[in-house]
Specification:
611 residues; alpha/beta; TIM Barrel; Rossmann fold; 6-stranded mixed sheet; 5-stranded parallel sheet; 21 helices; 17 strands; elongated; binds alpha-D-glucopyranose
């Protein structure tokens, strides 16, 4: 009898051993089986996301780490190839597969306008431009292309899309927001279906195969509504306004099956979002029925206290209790693991809360196919940089024509391709880094030839006739322009690259060299000004000098798209995703405000028509 019982028990353990690895089983059953086998240590390891700089296979094995990320600019080697990236990620994965239960890691990165950390990747226009294009299908195609380039490097997860509704352009992250209008941001959540694939069941997190990646709607909630646009600050207002303005895009993101949601550094009515249990658990998880996992921002829990990290035990307690499932630590992971373990063992955090977090993480990992395909697929290697035509199309569609001729009867655009001599001037005419903006190769982005692509000047030179003389001078004097014998000039100026708080700006004037270049050139010859910026800038003082003005936002690597339009191969279709103020004293000022006196209203955009 004893032998029979032992055999039955052994058989049961064997059959149990197969269940979570059995692809014929429903995902919920696989999750529950795996969860039931996990120790507290293994569970807390799953909730821990660490920066790749301090990640090795053995660290992942030892601490059962569930996720690794590349912060902005964090690369395995300068200008690393797709193969180098994939080998690095696969090496970390080996560490995870070597653990008792072999739970694979999920590797996250900010592929927010293409796979922008990676040298040579296609860099798409930033979201503020895509909002002006107003084309949900285009954005979905961009998502699909980005997923392919991310998978080329063996990575399975991107911290995108940002669905912030930027209500004040003084915010350094306004370019990451599709628009000031929640309905337009909502419409752009089609990118999630491009990144992940179409979820088969509304509201169910889904990643459709090895050509897709898990997505992340961020930053929940109210990141774009802070006082004076001060990054990570306080969003004040009623719950109704919070829902109607800032939460609205999450409804669609969740319907589309977004796999993760990242919490905002900011506060709502003085309560830090990273400890806001009502908005995270009661609303996001219960009322909106979000079934993926909630992730903190980078050191987001540390910043619950002021100064950051002042009381880490408190930070861990209130953030995990609030409903955050995975903590982007990213460096002091033993401290996080020890603190959380202690809080659970002392009964301050329930095992139910830990199980909810781990269940969600495992669910995403199963839906992302990580258990069946934990390693990179070399067939995608060639996808890096393989979507430049799509990016060029996107650039064309983002451009907004704000002025065309000092007298509408005499429009300047489309420009002649057969002019005898033209001047191209400005700090952003021949500078790939400037036209890409922040979150490009490095976290902040940088001026110069930081990656591969086509500058605006190169696009112009490619487009005009071989008999047209193109003169490039970054900041010409008015006398040299006057004496130059130019048919017209194209002045390309704007903001230097920036990201996050470094982009907070209270005056929003065109950086001085740009303003001077506009005046010196446009006072001497017919001029088109092309503004490269993450948001509207103060243009009113210079508008009368300009014969034409185009908002090109942050176009990315394919500057050819600008020449395609200004020389008439395509007409403008962009409608501004943002209100253009007359002066910063009017801010915040958004579509629908009672006091609304813009230079150019939300949705404004001219066409050239036929000359
Ligand atoms: C940053 C950003 C967030 C990004 C994360 C990882 O601080 O706030 O948008 O996804 O850290 O790089």
């Amino acid at each position: 009898m004893l032998l029979l019982l032992l055999l039955l028990a052994f058989d049961a353990s064997l059959s149990r051993a197969a269940l979570y690895k059995d692809t014929s089983q429903p995902i919920h059953a696989r999750v529950q089986d795996l969860l039931s086998r996990m120790t507290l240590e293994e569970k807390i390891g799953q909730m821990t996301q660490i920066e790749r700089e301090n990640a090795t296979g053995s660290v992942i094995t030892k601490y059962f780490i569930g996720s690794v990320l590349s912060g902005g600019g964090s690369v395995p080697a300068p200008r690393a190839s797709a193969a180098t990236w994939a080998a690095f990620v696969d090496g970390l994965q080996d560490g995870a597969l070597a653990t008792r239960l072999g739970i694979p890691i999920i590797y996250g990165i900010d592929a927010v306008h293409g796979h922008n950390n990676v040298y040579g990747a296609t860099i798409f226009p930033h979201n503020v431009g895509l909002g002006s294009a107003g084309d949900p299908d285009l954005v979905k195609r961009i998502g699909a292309a980005t997923a392919l380039e991310v998978r080329a490097t063996g990575i399975q997860y991107t911290f995108a899309p940002c669905v912030a509704v930027c209500r004040d352009p003084r915010w350094g992250r306004c370019f990451e927001s599709y628009s000031e209008h929640p309905e337009l941001v909502k419409a752009m959540t089609t990118i999630i279906s491009g990144l992940q694939g179409e979820t088969p069941a509304k509201g169910v997190p889904y990643v459709g195969g090895s050509s897709k990646v898990a997505a992340c709607s961020k930053h929940y909630v109210g990141d774009g509504g802070t006082r004076s646009g001060i990054n990570e600050n306080n969003t004040v207002g009623s719950y109704k306004r919070l829902v109607g303005t800032h939460m609205l895009p999450y409804f669609d993101a969740i319907d589309k099956g977004v796999s993760t949601v990242m919490i905002s550094y900011s506060s709502w009515n003085g309560i830090k979002m990273h400890k806001n249990r009502h908005l995270i658990t009661d609303i996001l998880k219960k009322r909106l029925r979000f079934k993926g996992f909630v992730i903190s921002d980078w050191q987001g829990i540390d910043r619950i206290t002021n100064p950051a990290g002042a009381n880490y035990t408190y930070s861990v307690l209130v953030s995990v209790t609030a409903g955050i499932d995975m903590i982007m630590v990213p460096y002091e992971y033993t401290k996080f693991i020890d603190t959380l373990t202690s809080l659970v063992k002392q009964g301050f955090i329930s095992l139910d809360r830990i199980d909810d977090a781990v269940r969600r993480i495992l669910f995403v990992k199963f839906t992302a196919g990580l258990f069946e395909h934990p390693k990179s697929d070399s067939s995608y290697r060639s996808q890096i940089g393989a979507h430049r035509d799509l990016a060029r199309e996107a650039v064309r569609k983002t451009l907004v024509l704000l002025k065309n001729g000092k007298n509408a009867k005499y429009p300047l655009l489309p420009l002649s391709k057969t002019a005898s001599k033209i001047l191209v001037a400005g700090s952003h005419a021949n500078n790939l880094g400037n036209q890409c903006g922040g979150w490009t190769i490095t976290w902040q982005g940088a001026s110069g030839n930081t990656t591969l692509g086509t500058t605006i000047l190169q696009g112009i030179s490619n487009t005009v006739s071989k008999n047209t003389q193109v003169v490039y001078e970054e900041s010409p004097s008015s006398s040299s322009v006057k004496g130059g014998g130019y048919d017209f000039a194209i002045v390309v100026v704007g903001e230097p690259p920036y990201a996050e708080t470094q982009g907070d700006n209270l005056n929003l004037t065109i950086p001085q060299d740009g303003a001077n270049t506009i005046e010196s050139v446009c006072s001497s010859v017919k001029c088109l000004v092309i503004l490269i910026s993450g948001r509207p800038l103060v243009v009113a003082p210079h508008l009368s000098s300009m014969d034409a003005l185009v908002a090109a936002w942050l176009p990315g690597s394919e500057g050819q798209g600008i020449a395609d339009v200004i020389f008439g191969d395509y007409d403008f279709q962009g409608k501004s995703s943002r209100t253009w103020f007359k002066s910063v004293e009017q801010l915040p000022m958004n579509y629908g405000d009672v006091e609304y006196d813009p230079l150019f209203p939300f949705g404004y955009g001219l066409k050239m028509g036929k000359k």
